[in-house]
């Protein structure tokens, strides 16, 4: 079936959907829109101003930027008052456009972390697929009770089990990685850590593991909690630790591909853990705390070892063993990449997502696929 789908993607409200990506969620949404458009689908994006892919859509689909007031402690764990005062009402107006013209759209792909799209789902006149990217959150759990005619996807079996406790039946569809964007790298001697600099990602524990091994560590990513970063991460820069900030995707892939091992140090129940498959796609093995969905990635991956959460000594031992394999076994890095392509390739994810969309459209009384 080759008919073109008309999709509305609802992004999270915190950051623009563009490179360099503010986080894994923004990266996943960006890749979904880009890939669906490349396959010929008509995709409209509801997202923060400054996002890619807002071209040609209704003006209401461009949501206000979310700025912190002067002097406030900006963190990824909280929202400024403008979130409820400006961002959510703007999203409501964007959904009004969809509700007024349901014949223009075939399906809604919802990635928003606010419950409004779920609460309005039954009245929009367009079937919705909502992806669960987070642990259980009270506001979202309450919103789910209103979400009739909504199909739920979960980024990992761990996340599916979490939401099953709230009565949500979800299908597992992991995030996908574009193999072309994350090419096989030659490896190197140093370690790499990438992600948001926030307490729950705990890059300070990667620093501790690197020091146990006497290997240089490069940290790449956006500061998501300035106080945490200034107290626990940035003071160590220059002592065998480099901090290179938020890199564009090509620069980040080059850095990871030239590293011996990537470290993952989440101290919360990670719903998925995109940075692991990204590194594996570059052929770089991964040593990580086995928190949440990361355990699943480690079970299916070649070249990834999960240790108990918080076990810095175990993390260091796992990293050294993986580095030794990488340097001693011919073709090891290529095998790491091949396994990542099989399990986490973006094309396979998009194939599955299209099937979900088409199944919902087929159930719609007035299906409107474009030939």
From TrEMBL:
- The record places domain Glycosyltransferase subfamily 4-like N-terminal at 23-179
Show the SUPFAM superfamilies listed in the entry.
UDP-Glycosyltransferase/glycogen phosphorylase
Which positions, given as ranges, span the membrane?
none
Q: Which UniProt keywords apply?
A: Glycosyltransferase, Transferase
Alphabetical list of Pfam families matching this protein? Glyco_trans_1_4, Glyco_transf_4
GO MF: glycosyltransferase activity
Source domain of life is Bacteria
Q: Any one Gene Ontology biological process term? A: carbohydrate derivative biosynthetic process
Descriptive protein name: D-inositol 3-phosphate glycosyltransferase
At the highest ranks, the source species' classification is:
Bacteria, Bacillati, Actinomycetota, Actinomycetes, Micrococcales
């Amino acid at each position: 079936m080759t008919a073109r789908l008309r999709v509305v993607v609802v992004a999270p409200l915190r950051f623009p959907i563009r490179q360099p990506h503010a986080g894994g969620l923004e990266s996943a949404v960006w890749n979904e829109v880009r890939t669906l458009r490349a396959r010929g689908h008509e995709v409209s994006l509801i997202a923060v101003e400054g996002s890619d892919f807002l071209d040609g859509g209704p003006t209401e689909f461009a949501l206000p930027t979310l700025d912190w007031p002067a002097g406030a402690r900006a963190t990824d764990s909280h929202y400024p008052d403008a979130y409820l005062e400006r961002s959510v009402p703007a999203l409501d107006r964007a959904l009004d456009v969809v509700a007024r013209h349901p014949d223009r759209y075939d399906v809604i792909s919802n990635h928003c972390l606010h419950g409004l799209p779920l609460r309005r789902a039954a009245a929009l006149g367009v079937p919705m697929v909502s992806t669960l990217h987070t642990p259980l959150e009270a506001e979202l759990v309450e919103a789910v009770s209103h979400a009739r005619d909504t199909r739920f996807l979960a980024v990992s079996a761990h996340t599916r089990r979490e939401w099953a406790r709230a009565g949500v039946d979800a299908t597992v569809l992991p995030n996908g990685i574009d193999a072309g964007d994350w090419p096989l790298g030659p490896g190197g001697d140093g370690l790499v850590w990438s992600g948001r600099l926030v307490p729950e990602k705990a890059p300070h524990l990667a620093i501790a593991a690197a020091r146990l091994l006497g290997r240089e560590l490069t940290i790449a990513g956006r500061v998501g909690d300035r106080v945490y970063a200034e107290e626990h991460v940035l003071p160590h820069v220059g002592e065998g630790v480099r901090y290179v900030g938020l890199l564009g995707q090509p620069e980040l892939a080059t850095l990871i591909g030239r590293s011996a091992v990537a470290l993952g140090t989440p101290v919360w129940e990670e719903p998925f853990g995109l940075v692991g498959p990204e590194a594996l796609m570059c052929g770089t093995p991964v040593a990580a705390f086995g928190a949440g969905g990361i355990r699943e990635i480690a079970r299916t991956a070649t070249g990834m070892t999960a240790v108990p959460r918080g076990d810095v000594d175990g993390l260091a031992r796992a990293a050294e063993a993986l580095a030794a394999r990488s340097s001693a076994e011919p073709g090891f890095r290529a095998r790491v990449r091949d396994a990542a392509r099989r399990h986490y390739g973006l094309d396979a994810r998009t194939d599955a997502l299209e099937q979900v969309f088409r199944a919902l459209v087929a159930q719609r009384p007035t299906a409107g696929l474009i030939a």
